[in-house]
Amino acid sequence: MKKMKMRLKKGVWPAICMYARFPQIWLFITTMLLSFFSLVLSAHLENQYWASICSNLFAGFVTGTVFFLLTGVRQIYISKLEIRNAWLESLHLQILEFNDMMHKLENWRNDDGKDLDDFVYDLLCEAHRVNEMIIYGRNDKRIGFDCLEYCKKHYGYNAIEMSERDDSVRDVIQGKFNYDKTEAVHLFRPLRHELLELNGNVNSDIKTTEITLKTITRSVI
Known about the structure:
The chain has helices at 2-20, 23-44, 48-106, 116-137, 147-155, 159-174, 181-218. With 221 residues, it is mostly helical. The radius of gyration is 27 Å and the shape is rod-shaped. The model has no long low-confidence stretch (mean pLDDT 80).
C-alpha cells in the first residue's frame, strides 16, 4: 500500500497535473459535459422538435469525442515512438564512440607519443558511459520509458550486470601497468562483443520504428 502511494505521488499524480494544463483536455471535458447535458435534455423535453435537436447535438458531440480520442491516442503513440527512437540513436552513437576508440587501440603504435595505460582507462570509461546512459536514463522524465527494462526485455542486455563487469575490468586495469596492445585488446574483447551485439539490436529497432512512424503518418487512422 505504501509503495502504491509512493508510485502515485511520484509518477501518476505529476502526469495528471501535466495533462491537466493542456487546453485540449479541457476541451474534451467540456465536450463530454455538453454531450451529457444534450442527452438529458433530449430525454426530458416534451417538445419533439427540441428533443430531436438535442439528440442530434448529442450524436455530434459523441462523434467529435470519438474523433478526438482517436487523434489524441495516435499523436501520443507517435510522440512516444519519436522520443524512444531519439534515445536509441543517442545510445547508438555512444556505442560507436567506444568502437572508434577500440579501432584506435587495435591500430595502436607505441611511437605516437601517447600513453597506452591512459588510453585503456579512457576506453573503459567510454564503455561505462553506455551502461550509465541505460541505467540512469530510466530516471529521465523526458524519455518516458524505463530504458533499463526495455534493453533487458528487447535486447537481452542487462546494463547493471555489464556495469559490474566494467568495474571488474577497472580493478584489473588499476592493478596492472605497462599494458601492451595485445593484452589490452584481449581484455576489452568481451565488452566489445556485448556492445556490438547491443548496437546491432538497437539499429534494427531504430529502422523498425522509422518504418512504423512512416506507416502511421501516412495512414488515415
